Amino acid sequence: PVTIRIGAFPNITHPQAMVGKANGEFEKTMGPGVKIDWKTFNAGPAAIEALFAGAIDMTYIGPNPTITGYVRSNGEALRVIAGAASGGAALIVRNDAGIQKPGDFHGKKIASPQLGNTQDVALRSWLRANGLKSTDKGGDVQVIPLANPDQLTLFLKKQLDAAWAPEPWATRLIREGNGRLFLDERTLWPNQQFVCANLIVSTKFLKDHPDLVKNWLRAHVELTEWINGHLPAAKKILNQQIQKETGKALPDAVLDEAFGRVQVTYDPLRYSLLSAAKSAYDAGFLGRQMPDLSGLYDLSLLNLVLSEKGKKAIQ
Amino acid sequence: MSVANHSDLSTAVESRAIGVRTDHAAPTRLQNRRTTGRGILRRITNQVIFYSVLLGLWALLAKLRIWPPYLFPAPWAVASALWAGLQDHSFLIGIAVTMKRMLIGYSLSVVLGMILGLAVASNKFLEETLGALLVSLQSLPSICWVPLAILWFGLTEKAILFVLLMGCILSVTIAMEDGRKQMPKIYTMAGRNLGASGFRLFWYVMLPASLPYIVSGLKQGWAFGWRSLIQAEMIFLTIGLGQLLMMGRDLNDMSQVIAVMLMIIALGYLVNRLVFRTMERTLQSRWGLAPNA
Amino acid sequence: MSVANHSDLSTAVESRAIGVRTDHAAPTRLQNRRTTGRGILRRITNQVIFYSVLLGLWALLAKLRIWPPYLFPAPWAVASALWAGLQDHSFLIGIAVTMKRMLIGYSLSVVLGMILGLAVASNKFLEETLGALLVSLQSLPSICWVPLAILWFGLTEKAILFVLLMGCILSVTIAMEDGRKQMPKIYTMAGRNLGASGFRLFWYVMLPASLPYIVSGLKQGWAFGWRSLIQAEMIFLTIGLGQLLMMGRDLNDMSQVIAVMLMIIALGYLVNRLVFRTMERTLQSRWGLAPNA
Amino acid sequence: MIPNTKFVAAEPQFPTPCRKPVQSTSLCGKTVIVPIRQVECSTPKIQLQEVSLSYQTDTGSELLALDRIDLDVHPGEFLCIVGPSGCGKSTLLHLIAGLQKPTSGRIAMDGDSVTAPGTDRILIFQEHGLFPWLTVGQNVEFGMKMKGLSKAEREDRTRHYLRLVHLSQFKDSRPHQLSGGMRQRVALARALATEPDVLLMDEPFAALDAQTRDMLHDELEKIWAETGRTIIFVTHNVREAVRLGDRVVLMSFRPGQVKKEFVVDLPRPRHLEEVEVARTAREILDQLRDEINKSLEAEYAHERS
Amino acid sequence: MIPNTKFVAAEPQFPTPCRKPVQSTSLCGKTVIVPIRQVECSTPKIQLQEVSLSYQTDTGSELLALDRIDLDVHPGEFLCIVGPSGCGKSTLLHLIAGLQKPTSGRIAMDGDSVTAPGTDRILIFQEHGLFPWLTVGQNVEFGMKMKGLSKAEREDRTRHYLRLVHLSQFKDSRPHQLSGGMRQRVALARALATEPDVLLMDEPFAALDAQTRDMLHDELEKIWAETGRTIIFVTHNVREAVRLGDRVVLMSFRPGQVKKEFVVDLPRPRHLEEVEVARTAREILDQLRDEINKSLEAEYAHERS
Ligand SMILES: Nc1ncnc2c1ncn2[C@@H]1O[C@H](COP(=O)(O)OP(=O)(O)OP(=O)(O)O)[C@@H](O)[C@H]1O
Ligand SMILES: Nc1ncnc2c1ncn2[C@@H]1O[C@H](COP(=O)(O)OP(=O)(O)OP(=O)(O)O)[C@@H](O)[C@H]1O
Ligand SMILES: [Mg+2]
Ligand SMILES: [Mg+2]
User: Fold this and answer.
1) Which of E128, E166, E167, E182 most suits a substitution to test ligand 1, by most atoms within 8 Å of the C-beta?
2) pLDDT, tens only, D149-195
3) Which of C124, C198, C265 is the closest to B17 by Cβ?
4) Which of A228, C68, D2, E180 could form a disulfide with E207 if both were Cys (CB 3.0 to 4.6 A apart)?
């Protein structure tokens, strides 16, 4: 039998993977001839590394690792074949930091989870859009790349004023770190939609096993629809799976609030990724030349699946 | 009279023992004293006192709520995390998996490290080239080996073992080299004079002569390996203590982090007591080295 | 005749030197041989050959494209990354910042490690309690100290130093303990007999007597510390080699990762050659220990 | 050469004559050492009462090295100990030095129990025990430094005692650069330099050539006579014991016991090659022979078993 | 006791008489050792030609330890070397053993240059050099194991030689559990057990009591007589040298040179306390005294400078 090796994070932004893993949807769709080998990651670069090395065939992953992976391999290594989730990031400020409006960020410390990652890029472009400058660009706003758990600690120590954080950390910063929602990133985008996770496949696997990929996409789309149709049940399964993999479930309140800012979708929201890439390039993360991302998407299989189901194709 | 005097003497000496290490008794005699019921009792009492005080201090700090409890959890919170983890077997499985990896990887490292050490020791060319490189390689953090590991072994157990290996193999090799460099000249002279040369000189003379260093290196290698393994598990996110630690951290669950840390410490303590202490003791009593008390 | 014979002899001995280390000449004499022009020349030739072969192999593998170049970059790709990093000074600044931290943190560790070692050595109670704990603590990966560091020191240099300290202080302490345990009994006996006791016994006898171990421990401590520092820098993401490494990794830029690794190796090599080798040499020639060649 | 010598063989508990420091008087440029005898005696300098020591071997069995030793050493006495190899001579000195603790019995110095080493009793180890990390000069200085002597004083004495053992030229050498005999002499200088009340010497001249040893005998005797120090001197050379000692204690083969004591009543200075010294030595040797035979018997008994 | 003894003092290059192995014949239950003299001589067993060695000291200056030594040792000869402490005796043995390399000159064994240690020349180190990680028995076995002897043979010989040095009971002890003299005897047994062509002995009996030493003298002489081995024996005890040697080489004080050779032509077995042995020894001692005086002069010269 063939084996599909697929990566995912035990995280609410990878809902199809978590729910599908839990209820066996993928096994059902792929049939008995296919063995599914799940690999767990908790950071994009490691997943890309594994994809490069041929250790996995597909993975659910955020947009920025996708871009760097594509650019680093000169467009050789991977293709985006579907979206997974949208939204799920927010700018949180500490209640007693005295921040009411963008202008108040002068001289403040803002954290992002990782240099050059999705939130980091979004933060930097938002700052620029609001006429603020980070210290490394000669301004007075300090952008500090810092792991999410450490952001919470520093919120409590009052050494950090704000953070651009993904879910569920945004919610936790609000609930446990005396934080306040300053900006939901969705408000910055058309249709309140921007990609926060998509499904990528290694080019080689896509070429060798288009049928398998297509089957996978079928399950993926079905799961997406099921989740959107059965939100409470889906959330429960999602949380159980997270608990299974991480040893700890999210508190229900956190789950509800966090998931409220996430939308499950199979649309890769191409425009949002391209605009994020532009921002990343502007911030200096993608080298000297704006990379050509025209070959990044291969949505033909997704569209086949959608048309089978009588749904609108995605360009 | 002699009885009275004797007890006089022994208390006098006993009381001195609180000062700097006194080795006025032969090692065998000291071991004797150590294995007496009284000695063990005293040691256990000391340890109970010490750890109780530590625990009390921790409880006090937690009670005072200088730091919020999710950053500085109280002992009972950690205890309940520990209990929960043990209840649902996740900790036990983690320990089992991690220990299994450690045992395999460490044994491999020791064997390979010794072979490497032998190669470097027995070949002038290798020593001048590879030898110098090895020490420098040792300062690379384990994360550097992760891409190579994935490249060569994929996301398998082997990759984790590789990272672990790269973490501790060099400790063993370097300890062997140190032992060889610092060992008294008379041993190799006597060995060569009695007809040992080449491999046999290494095996029968240089290796045993540098045993004290090798034991020290094995100890350090164990620590290095353990750290590398935990880190590898954190990166690869496969079952194990490293994953539990990472999850605790990712979820900002300090009770779990500390519970896992306690387990790591306890395991380290156990291995040290059961394995390395025994090795040291044997060495000391056989070689007649300074007793450890 | 004596001249002819002499050269006969010396070549005979020279050719033997390719086999297992022969220490038939006194250390001082050997050092002499080593510092002769011919010896140095040969060593350099050896090293040039070795590293050229390594480089050639790497280039070959890269050329064959067994692995994709974005994962296994060619030497020239790494060279250009290195060049770029040096050009825009980011590497130089990284090295400077990291080395500064390392020097401060390492010196602190050595001093504190020795004090800790002394405390453990001089107090039976501490030895039985703290002593056992220390070895176990050593197996905790540095990441465990990060939450505590942030909690206590916030986002400051101090936090990084703390992580570094926790990484290598124990190596020094443990090496001191090992040295004390494995040192020949006669030294403490002679010292006590001549009136040394308490602190002075430690300082004037036990410490120098365990110097060979301490040097070994300092070496291992340096490696431990270096790893911890890099990891701390990766987590705190402040300027430094760790950050450069992390950025390379986050951006999946293997050329940069390898370039930074090469810099770390080169620094390790330099420090080892300049500092630790010298210490070992001095020790060997003073104590008349087995020469290293 | 010197006719009026006397030799007394004594049972272990024989009340040995007690000596005050001898006086040395200069006679025609040559120092003649004349012991002054006293009948009345203060407390012994060193007193061993029923001292036993047993080592535990790896196999768990016990090896009784010293068996109920009773011994009094008087202030200013020069006591020599001889006995077969492995009879416990070194162990005995370690006990007196306070480096080991007896399994039973009591050791007292000036009436006080010995529980730890002290600078009043300096031991010269059989295997020298020089510190390899110090130069020869620093080794000699070590004990004085521990005693807190001033730098000038230390340097003075170092110079003096290194010269005494003929090693001035090697002040800055390392111990490993010396020959076996030279190391022994450094150890001797190191011990003498601290100028202790009691000197415990464990075969200090074993590795020396006859000439050097003769000269050191003279020097040691002179120091002893001039300072009134108490010396316990272990040697395997019976003649040397007779040459130097006021009293020679013969120890028995395992377990080490005091087999016999001999008071050597020959006038000083004596000479190793003297007839009287030789005769006395032969007397002791005969007794020693019995002990060795016992050791042989033990050996053959073990063979047979 | 034995009247017909002869003593010849010889200049260094004096052609020493060459010996074949002596024969031992049993006479009324006592072994009498009779040397057989030969005038014709094959190649020397060991030949030193203009051998010099200098050590470099820390300060960079050189210390000339051996200065152009010329020495032939004949097959089956028992050669003793005496000399003042620090004159280079141990260094000389190390050179012959191949453990050190001369600064200049040539050392040959059976005509071949010596460049490395070999099992045909076994050295007993002055500081024993036992392996602390092996038991006494394993230490003795070590050389035989390296030679590839069978287990049974090894055990046999170990038993035999341990018994020879009276240490059968300590077969399973560790070296650190032995007394100084016992360690020396183990080292002796270890060297003898490999049964080498040439035995190099560096003060092997220095730490032994008179009786034990006497017995080991007898044993050594017997082994030598029975096997025809060549022995180079360093000692500081001139009498011992005369007791054992066919020839005694006196070395001069730094730099070590062959000052004089003495052929000892006394019938064997000799005894340490014999008058003739004593007389010969005194003769050598007188020469030694000159050397010591030189060392004293060097000492005082250094003092003054
Ligand atoms: N650490 C030890 N463990 C066990 N036995 C020991 C130890 N040290 C000494 N012995 C035993 O104690 C006995 C006496 O040893 P000691 O060194 O006192 O003898 P000695 O009289 O000094 O002999 P020598 O003249 O050979 O130096 C010996 O039989 C020896 O085997
Ligand atoms: N490793 C060394 N480095 C420098 N000098 C040395 C070294 N070893 C020995 N020497 C010097 O060489 C000389 C001869 O030493 P050696 O050990 O051969 O003397 P020896 O005749 O055996 O004396 P002893 O009778 O005291 O054992 C001594 O003066 C000594 O200081
Ligand atoms: Mg002794
Ligand atoms: Mg010598």
Assistant:
1) E182
2) 888 889 988 988 898 888 888 888 888 888 888 888 899 899 888 88
3) C124
4) E180
Distance CA D31, CA D292 (A): 38
Is the domain of D294 the same as that of D157? no
User: Does chain A reach chain D with at least 3 CB pairs under 8 Å?
Assistant: no
Residue of E nearest to D238 (CA): E210
DSSP code of residue E253: S
A311: pLDDT strictly greater than 60: yes
Supply the CATH number for residue E61's domain: 3.40.50.300
Smallest Cα–Cα separation from B192: which of D183, D165, A108, E97? Answer: E97
D188 shares a domain with D203: no
Please determine, for residue B8, whether its predicted confidence score (pLDDT) is greater than 60.
no
Q: Does residue A115 contact residue C237 with C-beta atoms inside 8 Å?
A: yes
Which one has a higher pLDDT value, C51 or D23? C51
* Tokens linked to E42: 């094959």
Residue D10 in domain? no
Q: Decide: B150 and A53 in contact? Cβ < 8 Å.
A: yes
Query: What is the ipTM, given to two decimal places?
Result: 0.77
Distance E116 CA to ligand 1 centre (A): 36
The tens digit of pLDDT for each residue in C155-176 reads: 778 888 888 888 888 888 888 8
User: Considering chain A, what is the average pLDDT of its residues?
Assistant: 86
Last residue of a domain, one of D195, D218, D236: D195
pLDDT at E35: 45
Same domain? For E191 and E248 the reply is no
**Subunits in contact with chain E (3 or more CB pairs closer than 8 Å):** B, C, D
Give me the mean pLDDT over the E58-66 stretch. 76
Chain D closest-CA separation from residue E240 CA (Å): 11
How far B183 CA sits from the closest chain D CA (Å)?
13
Determine the average pLDDT of the residues in C6-17: 36
Query: Token digits for B261?
Result: 């840390």
Tokens (6 digits) for B201: 């000189």
Assign D234 a pLDDT band (cuts: 50, 70, 90).
very high
Residue E5 within a domain = no
* E204/E187 same-domain check: no
Cβ count near C145 (within 10 Å)? 23
Task: Please report residues of D whose CB lies closer than 8 A to that of B285.
Answer: 58
Q: Do E98 and C24 touch (CB under 8 A)?
A: yes
Is the same domain home to D76 and D145?
Answer: no
Residues A119-168: tens digit of each pLDDT: 888 898 898 888 888 877 778 888 888 888 788 888 887 888 999 988 88
Same domain membership, residue D239 and residue D104 = yes
Q: What is the CATH number of domain B75-287?
A: 1.10.3720.10
Burial class (CB in 10 A: 0-12, 13-18, 19+), A249: middle
Mean pLDDT of A211-229: 89
E strands, C48-94, in order: none
Which two structure tokens, joined as six digits, stand for B157? 């157990």
Chain D residues touching E83 at Cβ < 8 A: 209
Q: To the nearest whole number, what is the mean pLDDT of chain B?
A: 77
Domain that holds residue E133: 129-195
**D204 and D70: one domain?**
yes
Residue of minimum CA distance from atom 10 in ligand 1 = E177
Domain boundary at D195, D222, D243, which? D195
* Six token digits for residue D278: 């030789």
- Based on the fold, state whether residues D115 and D140 are members of the same structural domain: no
Residues of C with CB below 8 A from A49's CB?
71, 249, 252
In a domain, residue E296? The reply is yes
**Touching, E vs C (3+ Cβ pairs under 8 A):** yes
| pLDDT band for position D42 (cuts 50, 70, 90) | low
Burial class (CB in 10 A: 0-12, 13-18, 19+), A101: exposed
How far is Cα E24 from Cα E47, in angstroms, rounded to an integer? 27
Distance from CA of E115 to the nearest CA of C (A): 6
> What is the mean predicted confidence (pLDDT) over D110-115?
82
